[in-house]
């Protein structure tokens, strides 16, 4: 074993091939040095070798099992490399497969000398111990009733073995009721014992963790959440999401897939993705936090209807979506919003938030300066409406997407160019239109067409917004912005009979939970939390060169 300038190099044996294994300061590389006659043509893999970033090594251990230590195809033949190389160690590492899926792969190296074998295990472990962003102790909450009710099984079969392999200690709590996890975090959990909190469930379970953690931190720091302008204290603990829900949009939009093993590996390697959180108030009283969708009208009605059919599992949303689509309700109200600065782009600029996103990084570095300036602007009572835009109208949907909200139903999401951590939310206003037009708009969530390119849709990137439903007595008789009637799919008059557009109110869907107030004030809290994620990787990130 050579150890020059912290580069360690040995000739070892892997799958009956002699390989040169090199540990650079941040990369482990191995390459075949003697090709057997069978493989004389070589493959691109054997010619160029393979590399793994040290930060993506899950674990290394001495391979004790004889069957593992010996090359598998010829365990009994004499004069085989297994005799010359009786010692072995195995490196487990992250391997990218298709579409943002990560898997844990193993490579076993055989050595002639026990000491060399042990040295390799030691030096790799030393490098791993320098990676201080990796969690060592995690608090795990499992919702046994989320999604298709597979939370416990998913955790035991797919996630716990990965954590065990990486030497992570866990305290696991299987929840016994709704809000069990939230209340435990708020009042009981000893947060100092952990580097992160993991939820096994869907967006609703994530919301519990979010509320428990954020509320706990504010209470510990004496911050009053009821003050809409209070500067909230960011959470130091990161949150991991093991998807086992019905929509899993937070997981999907932060790592590009809703796969439990991929999530577990993002936690093991200690990824960190900051994320915006919207605080929602009603007349100065705190209601909820939201990280994905705040939706009034269509998505509020879908959720209200779907709650009656929870037993259907994820399919409840499709049924309720279909019913709500047929109802074709619209709601009067006034939306006011404070637009974001131009430097965070525009919802239609087609710049997608990806791993290491420049817009989110820029926003973070300019956050303090920006916040001071904006406070100045908003302080004087008489000036409180300065910079605000006001829109009155009848809306089929009012959606605020603080992230893309990509999910398997809509792989590009409600707002494909929304950013995870830029301090803004994309406010999408879908005005009253025909059923056919609304159908076209919905359909564009599933293909490459621009869902904002309709006369009845407008989208704004905002830092704050308010909504006020029309009071029936004050509602204008006709909405001036209405477009002349365009062709409908079919008049479904029976569904409309009891519908009075002057009194109708919808509810807000707040990350999959119903809010009990319709008049709300929303403010984006830039990068309030961090997830064990890295954003969606560009495909070429999968390769590493040495
Ligand atoms: C023609 C097909 C059009 C399909 C259009 C699909 C658009 C889907 C957009 C999904 C956006 C999800 C946003 C995430 C919200 C989460 O915080 C929340 C908690 O998990 N999930 C939901 O509220 C769950 C919301 C689930 C909403 C499902 C809506 C399904 C609409 C179906 C309309 C059918 C029309 C058919 C006409 C013949
Ligand atoms: N032990 C429990 N019993 C009943 N409800 C629970 C329990 N633990 C958590 N919950 C609640 O179950 C609700 C739904 O959970 P979850 O988000 O995991 O799944 P989902 O609704 O199917 O998925 P999604 O939110 O992604 O649509 C959450 O609001 C959560 O508060
Ligand atoms: Ca955002």
TrEMBL record:
One of its GO terms (biological process) is ceramide metabolic process. PANTHER family: CERAMIDE KINASE, SPHINGOSINE KINASE. Residues 367-386 are annotated as: Disordered. One of its GO terms (cellular component) is membrane. Residues 133-284 form the DAGKc domain. Coiled coil: none annotated. One of its GO terms (molecular function) is ceramide kinase activity. InterPro entries: ATP-NAD_kinase_N, CERK_C, CERK_PH, Diacylglycerol_kinase_cat_dom, Lipid_Phosphate_FormReg, NAD/diacylglycerol_kinase_sf. SUPFAM superfamilies: NAD kinase/diacylglycerol kinase-like. This is Ceramide kinase. SMART domains: DAGKc.
């Amino acid at each position: 074993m050579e150890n020059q300038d912290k580069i360690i190099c040995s000739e070892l044996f892997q799958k009956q091939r002699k390989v040169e294994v090199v540990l650079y300061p941040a990369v482990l590389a191995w390459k075949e040095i003697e090709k057997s006659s069978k493989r004389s043509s070589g493959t691109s893999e054997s010619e160029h070798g393979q590399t793994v970033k040290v930060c993506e090594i899950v674990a290394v251990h001495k391979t004790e099992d004889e069957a593992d230590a010996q090359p598998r195809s010829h365990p009994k033949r004499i004069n085989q490399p297994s005799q010359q190389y009786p010692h072995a160690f195995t490196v487990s590492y992250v391997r990218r497969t298709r579409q943002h899926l990560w898997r844990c792969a193993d490579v076993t190296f055989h050595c002639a000398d026990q000491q060399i074998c042990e040295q390799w295990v030691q030096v790799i472990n030393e490098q791993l111990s320098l990676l201080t962003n990796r969690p060592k102790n995690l608090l795990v909450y499992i919702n046994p009733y989320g999604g298709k009710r597979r939370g416990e099984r998913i955790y035991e079969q797919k996630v716990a073995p990965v954590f065990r392999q990486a030497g992570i200690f866990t305290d696991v709590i299987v929840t016994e009721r709704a809000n069990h996890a939230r209340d435990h975090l708020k009042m009981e959990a000893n947060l100092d014992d952990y580097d992160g909190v993991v939820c096994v469930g869907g967006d609703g379970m994530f919301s519990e963790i979010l509320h428990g953690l954020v509320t706990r931190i504010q209470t510990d720091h004496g911050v009053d959440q009821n003050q809409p302008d209070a500067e909230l204290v960011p959470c130091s603990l990161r949150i991991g999401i093991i998807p086992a829900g019905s929509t899993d949009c937070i997981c999907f939009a932060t790592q590009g897939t809703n796969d439990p093993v991929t999530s577990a590996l993002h936690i093991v390697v200690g990824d960190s993705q900051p994320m915006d959180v919207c605080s929602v108030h009603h007349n100065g009283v705190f209601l909820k936090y939201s990280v994905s969708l705040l939706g009034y009208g269509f998505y509020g009605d879908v959720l209200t209807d779907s709650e009656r059919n929870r037993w259907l599992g994820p399919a409840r949303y499709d049924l309720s979506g279909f019913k709500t689509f047929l109802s074709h309700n619209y709601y009067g109200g006034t939306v006011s919003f404070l637009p974001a600065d131009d430097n965070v782009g525009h919802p239609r600029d087609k710049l997608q938030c990806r791993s290491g996103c420049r817009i989110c990084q820029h926003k973070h570095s300019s956050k303090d300066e920006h916040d001071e300036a904006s406070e100045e602007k908003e302080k004087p009572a008489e000036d409180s409406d300065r910079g605000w835009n006001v829109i009155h109208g009848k809306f089929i949907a009012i959606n605020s997407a603080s992230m893309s909200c990509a999910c398997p139903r809509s792989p590009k999401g409600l707002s494909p160019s929304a950013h995870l951590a830029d301090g803004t939310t994309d406010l999408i206003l879908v005005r009253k239109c025909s059923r056919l037009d609304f159908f076209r708009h919905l359909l564009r969530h599933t293909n490459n067409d621009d869902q904002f390119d309709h006369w009845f849709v407008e989208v704004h990137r905002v830092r704050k917004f308010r909504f006020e439903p029309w009071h029936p007595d004050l509602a204008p008789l006709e909405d001036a912005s209405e477009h002349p009637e365009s062709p409908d799919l079919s008049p479904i008059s029976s569904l409309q009979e009891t519908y009075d557009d002057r009194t109708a109110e919808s509810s807000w869907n707040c990350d999959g939970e119903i809010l009990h107030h319709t008049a709300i004030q929303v403010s984006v809290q830039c990068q309030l939390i961090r997830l064990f994620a890295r954003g969606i990787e560009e495909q070429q990130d999968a390769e590493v060169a040495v």
